[in-house]
């Protein structure tokens, strides 16, 4: 009936309110249960130490490099210029904060003695690992998109060489674990590449780039299949219509097929890249200090496993949730066009 709002029986506002209440009660119960469980463990929580794993003030000792005596100390604002005179007219000058001076004029000093210290802010293990995770994930995503796009197009190509090459790459990569591929890239291909570079006195490739390569190539195989499925989901009549209007196959693919396919492949692409962000935690096995490895090192030095592993999980959640929100924003923009 026109003008009549049809609503399924039992699906009114009361129904929605009831099940939302059930959800929040269940969530509150879970949090309360977790809090109660932590109280039963003989563990001292030190949440106040968490900020120091992002940024902390480091005291660096200023030590002498020669043996001799302090010939002069001249203040220069907040710092002091300490001149040490040694044997054979040897001398060295150090700039030391005035409030940290530990020597006086005519004092005798030996190699390695501390004459003062300076404070500087440094990034902590967690922040350093988070930055590496962001860097690795961003670069790997870009390369995975490029590789996956071209491989997906080669997968549906009429050229047998391109098609067989794409199939071989996809099946080889998807048929082996990512951890194994990381080991192969680092210990096998990395050793071969760096050995060849060393022969010609060319700087060696850092482990970070082998980690990025392994992630990009692994994700690229899945992106290729997503791209292939997205293109094939567009009705063949679209290509035939574009060709009948005089468009080349390249232009038809670029202007007609790919824009429609992109709308369909965006959600699965987001899921693949979210998985890749989490998979970057495996790079710690090849000495890349990403977020998980940084957390593991922080735990081993501080003996605070509960706080730090909770923090690590929350940071991964923030990364993946932010990326998911960005993809949803792109979806809404594409729908509005």
Structural class determined from secondary elements: alpha+beta
**In which order are the strands of the major sheet placed?**
4-3-2-5
Number of helices: 9
Query: Termini separation (Å)?
Result: 33 Å
Just name the CATH architecture of the largest domain: Orthogonal Bundle
The CATH homologous superfamily of the largest domain corresponds to MetI-like
Order of helices and strands: HEEEEEEHHHHHHHH
Average pLDDT value?
88
* Count of all domains: 2
How many strand elements? 6
Sketch the major β-sheet: 4 strands, antiparallel
Q: What share of the residues lie within helices?
A: 55-70%
Low-confidence sequence ranges? 1-6
Write a structural description.
The chain is α+β, with helices and mostly antiparallel strands and 337 residues long. It folds into 2 domains: 56-123, Beta Barrel (OB fold (Dihydrolipoamide Acetyltransferase, E2P)), CATH 2.40.50; 125-336, MetI-like fold (Orthogonal Bundle), CATH 1.10.3720. It has 9 helices and 6 strands. The protein has helices spanning 13-39, 125-155, 160-174, 178-199, 207-233, 236-244, 249-279, 291-302, 305-336, and strands spanning 55-63, 68-76, 79-86, 91-97, 108-109, 114-123. A 4-stranded antiparallel sheet has the order 4-3-2-5, with no helix packed on it. A hairpin with a 2-residue loop joins strand 2 and strand 3. Helix 5 (207-233) packs across helix 7 and helix 7 (249-279) runs antiparallel to helix 9 (305-336). The radius of gyration is 30 Å and the shape is extended. It holds the Pfam family BPD_transp_1. It is a multi-pass membrane protein. This is Putative glutamine transport system permease protein GlnP.
């Amino acid at each position: 009936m026109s003008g009549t709002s049809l609503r399924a029986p039992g699906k009114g506002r009361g129904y929605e309110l009831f099940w939302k209440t059930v959800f929040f009660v269940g969530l509150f119960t879970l949090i309360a249960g977790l809090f109660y469980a932590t109280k039963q463990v003989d563990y001292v929580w030190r949440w106040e130490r968490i900020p120091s794993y992002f940024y902390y003030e480091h005291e660096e000792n200023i030590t002498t490099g020669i043996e001799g005596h302090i010939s002069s100390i001249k203040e220069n604002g907040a710092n002091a210029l300490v001149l040490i005179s040694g044997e054979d007219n040897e001398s060295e000058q150090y700039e030391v904060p005035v409030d940290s001076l530990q020597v006086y004029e005519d004092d005798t000093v030996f190699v390695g003695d501390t004459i003062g210290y300076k404070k500087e802010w440094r990034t902590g293990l967690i922040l350093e690992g988070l930055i590496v995770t962001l860097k690795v994930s961003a670069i790997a995503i870009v390369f995975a998109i490029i590789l996956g796009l071209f491989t997906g197009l080669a997968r549906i190509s009429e050229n047998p060489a391109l098609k067989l090459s794409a199939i071989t790459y996809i099946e080889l990569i998807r048929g082996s674990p990512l951890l194994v591929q990381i080991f192969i890239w680092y210990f096998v291909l990395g050793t071969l590449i760096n050995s060849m570079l060393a022969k010609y006195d060319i700087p060696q490739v850092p482990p970070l780039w082998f980690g990025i390569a392994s992630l990009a190539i692994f994700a690229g195989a899945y992106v290729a299949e997503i791209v292939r499925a997205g293109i094939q989901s567009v009705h063949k009549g679209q290509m035939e219509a574009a060709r009948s209007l005089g468009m080349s196959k390249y232009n038809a693919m670029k202007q007609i097929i790919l824009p429609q396919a992109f709308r369909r492949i965006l959600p699965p692409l987001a899921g693949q890249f979210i998985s890749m962000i989490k998979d970057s935690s495996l790079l710690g096995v090849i000495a890349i200090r990403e977020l998980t490895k940084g957390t593991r090192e922080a735990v081993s030095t501080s003996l605070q496993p509960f706080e730090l592993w909770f923090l690590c999980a929350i940071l991964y959640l923030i990364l993946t949730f932010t990326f998911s929100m960005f993809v949803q924003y792109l979806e809404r923009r594409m729908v509005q066009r």
